[in-house]
Amino acid sequence: MSEDRICVASIAGAYGVRGEVRLKSFTAQPEAVAAYAPLTTEDGQRSFDVSLGQSIKGGFSARLSGVTSKEEADALRGVALYAPRDRLPQLPDDEFYHADLIGIEVVDTGGAVLGRVKAVHNHGADDLLEIHGPKLKATVLLPFTKACAPTVDLTAGRIVADPPEGLF
User: Taking the model in full, what pTM does it have?
Assistant: First the structure.
């Protein structure tokens, strides 16, 4: 996957019988996903213009260019859609795209490696960094707050963490 693209949506399957899809948006303002079109598949082989329909549970109904039947829409179930990074808004200094955090090394305040970010989760409150590493017996979920992750240096490719006592 090229670092100049970011996953902004996924297709959850067909919506109706005329080729519309159920689209899950991963953008901060869900309806803004259409503004980043054309969106491409992960392999870059297909490109779609997007027209959003109504808001539905878990996303939107949407029409993708070139998709005209329920069968074509169903065949796209699970496909992730990507937008060029340069089409996305610039973020403030204390905000990050999840794609930029995944794979980054996590070290403690003394410089000891704790692991790498495997995923970023949000269950309603703050984001949680899912940390994996060879010295860890299980996944560790680190709150992604200023207190627990005071330094994020994307240029150096690392997060300096100050985890709560006993987390690691």
Answer: 0.74
Which CATH number is 98-161 given?
Answer: 2.30.30.240
Nearest CA to 4 among 85, 109, 67? 85
- And the tokens for 83? 């937008």
Residue 2 has pLDDT above 70, yes or no: no
Q: Which fold has domain 5-87?
A: Elongation Factor Tu (Ef-tu); domain 3 (2.40.30)
CB 10 within 8 A of CB 26: yes
33 burial type by CB count under 10 A (0-12 exposed, 13-18 middle, 19+ buried): buried
pLDDT tens for 66-91 read 999 999 999 999 999 999 988 888 88
Rounded to whole angstroms, the Cα distance separating 81 from 56 reads: 19
CA dist 56 and 48 (Å) reads 20
Q: Which residue has the higher pLDDT, 97 or 124?
A: 97
Please report, as a single letter, which amino acid is at residue 129: L
Over range 134-158, report the average pLDDT: 91
Q: Where are the domains of the chain?
A: 5-87, 98-161
